[in-house]
C-alpha cells in the first residue's frame, strides 16, 4: 500500500523539490501540501495521511504547536520533522509534542527516505547530527530549567521573546489572553528571571531563538 504523505513547508519551491524526490519512490504519494500550521491542521483532518512531514518554521503557528494540535486531534498521527533547526532543545520539544522523527535538511535525500519508512513503521527516526547533539546535550550540558517547560510554555516563551503581545499569542495558539498571561508568569518563575529582558537574554543564550532571524 502506498504511504500517503502530507508535506508542510512554507516555501513552495522546497515542497516542489521534495515532491519530485518522494514521488520517484514507488510506494510514496504526496496527497496534500500546506504552507502554514493552520492549513496543515485543516488538510490533515481532510486527508488523514499515513505520514506528515513537518517543517518547524511556519508563518503563523510554529511547527511544534501544529504537531501538538494534530496529536490532540489524532494521537496515532505519524509526524516526521524535517527542518534546518539543529538545536537539540528544539528537537526534544518537537518529540515531546508528538513527533516520531527529526531529520535536519543538511542530510542526504536517502536519510529522509529511510526516516519516512522508519516513522511509518513506528520506529523513531533521528538524523545522526541531531542524535549526536541530543546525546552531547544530555551528557555534557548542565541541567537547565528551560528543559522543564511544557510544550505550550516553550511556544509561549518563543513568541514572547520575539515581541508578540499576549493578544497576538492567544490568537496564534488558540487560547485566551489570560492563559497566556498565566503561562508567561510561570515561565519567568521556572526560569528564575524577573523580567522579559532577562528572559530574552536567556532565550538567545540557549539558542531558543536566533536574534538575526527573529528580529
List the helices and strands and how they pair.
Layout: E1 3-8, H1 12-22, E2 28-34, H2 37-47, E3 51-54, H3 63-73, E4 79-83, H4 88-97, E5 101-104, H5 109-120, E6 125-126, H6 128-140, H7 151-160, H8 166-173, H9 177-191, H10 196-205, H11 211-214
Parallel strand pairs: 1-2, 1-3, 3-4, 4-5, 5-6
Helix pairs in contact: 2-3, 4-6, 7-9, 8-9
Shape: globular
Please provide the count of β strands. 6
Please compute the radius of gyration using only Cα atoms.
17 Å
CATH top level label of the largest domain: Alpha Beta
Overall number of domains: 2
Relevant CATH superfamily of the largest domain: Response regulator
Order of helices and strands: EHEHEHEHEHEHHHHHH
Secondary structure tally, helices: 11
Class of secondary structure makeup: alpha/beta
Uncertain segments are: none
Distance between the termini: 45 Å
CATH architecture of the largest domain: 3-Layer(aba) Sandwich
- CATH topology (level 3) name of the largest domain: Rossmann fold
Helix content, binned percent: 40-55%
Order of strands side by side in the largest beta sheet?
A: 2-1-3-4-5-6
Strand content: 5-15%
The overall pLDDT, averaged over residues, is 88
Largest β sheet strand count, sense and barrel closure: 6 strands, parallel
Amino acid at each position: 500500500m502506498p504511504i500517503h504523505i502530507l508535506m508542510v513547508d512554507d516555501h513552495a519551491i522546497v515542497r516542489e523539490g521534495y515532491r519530485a524526490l518522494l514521488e520517484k519512490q514507488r510506494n510514496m504519494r504526496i496527497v496534500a501540501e500546506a504552507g502554514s500550521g493552520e492549513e496543515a491542521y485543516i488538510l490533515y483532518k481532510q486527508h488523514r495521511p499515513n505520514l506528515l512531514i513537518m517543517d518547524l518554521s511556519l508563518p503563523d503557528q510554529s511547527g511544534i504547536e501544529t504537531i501538538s494540535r494534530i496529536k490532540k486531534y489524532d494521537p496515532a498521527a505519524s509526524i516526521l520533522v524535517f527542518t534546518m533547526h539543529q538545536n537539540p532543545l528544539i528537537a526534544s520539544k518537537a518529540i515531546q509534542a508528538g513527533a516520531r522523527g527529526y531529520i535536519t535538511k543538511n542530510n542526504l535525500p536517502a536519510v529522509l527516505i529511510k526516516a519516512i519508512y522508519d516513522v511509518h513503521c513506528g520506529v523513531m527516526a533521528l538524523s545522526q547530527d541531531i542524535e549526536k547533539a541530543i546525546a552531547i546535550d544530555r551528557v555534557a550540558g548542565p541541567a537547565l530549567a528551560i528543559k522543564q517547560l511544557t510544550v505550550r510554555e516553550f511556544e509561549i516563551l518563543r513568541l514572547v521573546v520575539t515581541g508578540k503581545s499576549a493578544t497576538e499569542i492567544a490568537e496564534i495558539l488558540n487560547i485566551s489572553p489570560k492563559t497566556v498571561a498565566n503561562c508567561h508568569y510561570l515561565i519567568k518563575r521556572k526560569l528564575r528571571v524577573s523580567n522579559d529582558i532577562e528572559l530574552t537574554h536567556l532565550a538567545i543564550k540557549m539558542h531558543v531563538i536566533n536574534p538575526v532571524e527573529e528580529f
